[in-house]
Amino acid sequence: MLCAVYKTRKKQGMYLYVTKKDxxxxxxxxxxxxxxKPELVTLLALDKREKIAGIDKQKLTDELNSxxxxxQMPPKExxxxxxxxxxxxxxxxxxxxx
Length: 98
What we know:
By secondary structure, the protein is α+β, with helices and mostly antiparallel strands.
């Protein structure tokens, strides 16, 4: 199976995988609006790869076959402030005062 991978300028680390280059018919319109103008990153032959950018190959293939697309979200960022507060012996979030 061949798929095309696109990135967005709106959110670093977000990628859209589709089954055909420049064909976004299966991608819901609200998702395309939030994604913005897709920029082609690469074409992938899934059969020749064991790992694909930290994605389970079977899950990616299943999503492409059933939905026609797969959206890869960026990894969740660590909350450095919360981690620092805990290291100081404080609660992870500051008390809110109104």
